[in-house]
Design a protein that fits this description.
The chain has helices at about 25-35, 85-95, 150-170, 185-220, 225-245, 250, 255-270, 280-310, 315-340, 345-380; strands at about 20, 40, 55, 60-65, 75-80, 105, 110-115, 120-125, 135-140. With about 375 residues, it is α+β, with helices and mostly antiparallel strands. The longest helix is centred in the last third of the chain and has 37 residues, at about 345-380.
């Protein structure tokens, strides 16, 4: 049986493409480019007013609603035209009328690359070959191949940090495998339960905040996708930098319930300034501050869970991971719903949860930690 090579087609499993929507700001400019230049025809029966225009190109259409802001899509739109020579001549004829826009065109060996007046890119090819019997149409789209550089940047910083953990946190205390012979004391169970609660709250706030700033940056500040990616890199690097501090013994010896409560409260206070964020630079600073505080809480909880007693290490870390994943999921879902109600609602919700975490750290986590440490302290004094 012959195999089907899916990678040979840019559109993958798309069976049929009916039309493409692109917003425009001016029908006269659109007519000059799409009709006179590219050679499309305006549908004579549908949407013939000034608020929208439908263009026919073979079996496909372009729908061009008039809006205050034009839409520019990522990648390149593939077109088939009857004659490249005629297309090249038409594009040259409209060039003076499109001066001052993003319009450009260049002739290649088997195609013509065209940039529209609002920045959309097209690659026009002649009929035949992979396009079969299509004489005119929009059979393909091509997304730019790219390295996931945000993940690459974060990984390049996080990997050395991961390798340094074993050296910096080495200990002579044995890590006991989970077994039925080991029993948790009542104090230990209480400390573990409160630690799981803090992990849930911190992750809920992180999930709410991350989705919130993504929506806020994209829809309110109108930041491009590349800038949103920079924001996520900033968030991850701030967390890694904060967590790297925990590798220093001078930092770890000062960790207590007040320190954890301060990390919760500091991030909550920073989120209180979300309504004052005017641009990308301010949003990036806010992200760095919040990520620094929230990013330290999870590793601190893991360290504290295993520092006093390393029995049940695997199950404790698994439970903390589960609590964190649950909180992240709940926070992410909540952020989308809250953003539809109010632009700043995800930040308010994250701040409220962080303040709750600060109170829980002061009132419950500190007392549970002290109660768990008391048997160890009495044994040391004896």
């Amino acid at each position: 049986m012959a195999t089907y090579e899916r990678a040979s087609q840019d559109m993958g499993n798309v069976v049929s493409l009916d039309h493409l929507n692109l917003t425009i700001t001016d029908q006269q400019t659109a007519t000059l480019f799409y009709v006179v230049g590219l050679g499309f025809t305006r549908d004579p029966y549908l949407t013939v007013g000034l608020e929208n225009m439908w263009l026919n190109l073979g079996r496909q259409q372009l729908h061009l609603p008039t809006r205050p802001e034009a839409q520019t899509v990522r990648g390149r739109i593939g077109l088939v035209v009857p004659d490249l020579e005629e297309l090249d001549a038409r594009l040259g004829s409209v060039e003076p009328g499109l001066a001052g826009t993003s319009f450009a065109h260049s002739r290649g060996k088997d195609s013509i690359d065209v940039t529209g007046p609002w920045g959309n890119r097209f690659r026009c090819a002649a009929p035949g070959g992979a396009f079969g019997g299509t004489l005119m149409g929009m059979p393909a789209g091509q997304m730019p191949s790219m390295v996931n550089w945000p993940a690459l940047v974060v990984a390049s910083v996080g990997l050395p940090l991961l390798l340094a953990v074993r050296r910096c946190l080495s200990t002579t205390k044995p890590i006991l495998l989970d077994s039925g012979s080991a029993q948790m004391t009542r104090q230990r169970k209480r400390f573990v339960a409160v630690s799981m609660l803090l992990a849930l709250l911190a992750s809920f706030a992180a999930g709410t905040f991350e989705v919130g700033f993504s929506l806020f940056g994209g829809q309110t500040l109108r930041l491009p996708n590349s800038m949103i990616a920079v924001m996520f890199v900033t968030c991850s690097l701030a967390m890694l930098a904060a967590q790297a501090l925990l590798l220093l013994p001078a930092v770890r010896k000062h960790i207590d319930h007040r320190w954890v409560a301060g990390a919760f409260a500091g991030s909550a206070v920073a989120l209180g300034f979300a309504a004052l964020v005017p641009d990308a630079a301010a949003l990036g600073l806010l992200i760095a501050v919040v990520a620094t505080g929230v990013g330290m809480i999870g590793p601190v909880l893991s360290y504290e869970l295993l520092e006093g007693d390393r029995s049940f290490a695997g199950s404790l870390l698994a439970r903390q991971a589960a609590a964190g994943n649950l909180g992240q999921a709940l926070g992410s879902v909540s952020a989308g719903t809250l953003f539809g109600w109010n632009t700043f609602a995800p930040f308010w919700a994250a701040a409220a949860v962080l303040l709750l975490g600060s109170v829980a750290a002061l009132r419950w986590w500190g007392a549970a930690r002290q109660a768990e440490r008391q048997p160890e302290q009495r044994s040391f004094q004896a």
